[in-house]
């Protein structure tokens, strides 16, 4: 009988560097790390049959938005089901101008949608939808967003779903259709924003996830691939302090700040979240990101009066080791500044950058970096009390990915007219547990970790239920053929 799979591979894919580790959950945490992902399979002498899972944490999708990269953001068409309402604010009205120009290429206001009590504003007009689809297809747009007013409480008309069926029949094959009710929560503008942004990165996300699966297959690993949001959350469990910890992840493209609660779960967004100036309201950890990373290009404008240092927004990205000054090239980056300051002595050749920046220019650059980090850290604090901040933790994100648990979240609106909220919550919890087990968790380890009931205002007998379940990975079920669709936390 073959021995059970027990090893885990964790990968942190950033804009500049990729960190990888092999972790044996049966050994102490400080003995399982070997080499980076590119050589760890051979250097560790690990057989592919022993690997139970590959878990990847990445900022690729956020980076595409932060960088306003038109190569990775697809043009989107929006069909808004609103009737005579919301005509004046068009889609993406609160977006940064450069983002809106890249993403929003077509929109139409259709005579559908719901009133606040769930009654229909108007019937679906199939002819109008088909006419809009013809215009969208003529523009070559392959990503469509359908967003209906109060669609989250639409348990009878199913207008977004019915519109999607018409669109699917009218559009050429291969088009992506995003329903806003499947992406975000109540709050029309924010839900529409989230759906549009989802539609914009969907094609890139699909290619990226496919690129994650291919090396797993090429290495002969017959195991599922997970995407995680856990990162350095495991560090909270290693702390003797029963308190939250703020983590600053300074990567090659962005600096991300999050708050880990004492139970090692990331703090969730209270109501709305902001990504690169786009306001949304879907379920996600409370993380703030700014364009600041090791690959950012540093420029100096010197005048007789003062020195002005300009950092970014362009960066060398994964070409850092070929274009940065410390690696014998000629592009001054933040990494060069860090090396010159003496904060990183094991990166490149510090002597190469000494002639590129004076002491005054270096000090100015350090001041700008510190001010940017201090500002975003302060925005994440909810009290005046001191808070432990982790600024450096090596390959902690990769370790956190490897030991991440499996989770599932249900965020739904239910009618409490015929069934009590307690009974509905019980059924939703059971569904969350079942989804977590289906995603690859061991049933006996699954627990409800978050549970919330929010009665909806202005609507009688309807409540919003949010339930999250999490459990340990079930090693006995690990195979590529059973690769789950849910995400690890």
UniProtKB/TrEMBL annotation:
**Highest taxon of source:** Eukaryota
Q: What's one Pfam family the UniProt record gives for this protein?
A: Hydantoinase_A
Write down what this protein is called.
Answer: Hydantoinase
Write out the GO MF terms.
hydrolase activity
Show where the Hydantoinase/oxoprolinase N-terminal domain sits.
8-169
Q: What span is annotated as the signal peptide, if there is one?
A: none
Segments forming domain Hydantoinase A/oxoprolinase = 240-418
């Amino acid at each position: 009988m073959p021995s059970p799979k027990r090893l885990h591979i964790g990968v942190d894919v950033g804009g500049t560097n990729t960190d990888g580790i092999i972790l044996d959950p049966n050994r102490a945490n400080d003995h399982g790390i070997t080499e980076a992902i590119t050589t760890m399979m051979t250097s560790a002498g690990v057989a592919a049959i022993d690997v139970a899972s590959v878990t990847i944490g990445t900022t690729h999708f956020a980076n595409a938005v932060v960088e306003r990269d038109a190569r990775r953001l697809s043009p989107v068409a929006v069909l808004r089901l609103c009737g005579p309402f919301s005509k004046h604010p068009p889609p993406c009205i609160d977006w940064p101008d450069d983002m809106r120009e890249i993403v929003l290429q077509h929109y139409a206001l259709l005579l559908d949608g719901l009133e606040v009590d769930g009654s229909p504003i108007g019937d679906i007009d199939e002819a109008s939808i088909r006419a809009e689809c013809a215009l969208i297809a003529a523009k070559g747009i392959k990503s469509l967003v359908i967003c209906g007013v109060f669609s989250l409480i639409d348990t009878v008309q199913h207008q977004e779903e019915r519109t999607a069926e018409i669109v699917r029949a009218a559009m050429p094959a291969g088009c992506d259709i995003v329903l806003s009710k499947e992406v975000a929560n109540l709050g029309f503008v924010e839900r529409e924003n989230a759906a549009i942004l989802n539609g914009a990165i969907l094609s890139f996300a699909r290619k990226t996830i496919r690129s994650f699966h291919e090396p797993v297959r090429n290495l002969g690993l017959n195991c599922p691939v997970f995407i995680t949001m856990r990162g350095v959350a495991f560090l909270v469990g290693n702390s003797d302090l029963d308190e939250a910890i703020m983590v600053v992840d300074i990567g090659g493209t962005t600096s991300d700040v999050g708050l880990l609660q004492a139970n090692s779960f990331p703090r969730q967004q209270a109501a709305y979240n902001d990504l690169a100036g786009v306001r949304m309201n879907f379920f996600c950890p409370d993380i703030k990101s700014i364009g600041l990373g090791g690959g950012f290009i540093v420029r100096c404008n010197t005048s007789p009066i003062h020195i002005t240092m300009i950092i970014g927004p362009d960066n060398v990205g994964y070409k850092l080791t070929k274009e940065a000054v410390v690696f014998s090239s000629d592009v001054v980056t933040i990494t060069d500044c860090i090396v010159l300051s003496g904060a990183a002595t094991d990166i490149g050749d510090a002597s190469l950058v000494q002639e590129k920046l004076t002491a005054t220019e270096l000090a100015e650059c350090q001041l700008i970096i510190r001010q940017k980090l201090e500002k975003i850290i302060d925005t994440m604090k909810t009290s005046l009390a001191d808070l432990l901040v982790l600024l450096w933790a090596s390959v902690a994100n990769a370790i956190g990915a490897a030991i991440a648990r499996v989770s599932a979240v249900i965020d739904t609106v239910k009618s409490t007219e015929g069934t009590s909220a307690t009974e509905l919550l019980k059924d939703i919890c059971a569904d969350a547990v079942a989804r977590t087990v289906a995603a690859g968790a061991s049933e006996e380890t699954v627990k409800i970790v978050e549970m919330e009931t929010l009665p909806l205002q202005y609507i009688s007998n309807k409540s919003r239920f949010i339930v999250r379940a999490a459990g340990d990975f079930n090693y006995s079920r690990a195979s590529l053929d059973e690769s789950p669709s849910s995400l690890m936390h």
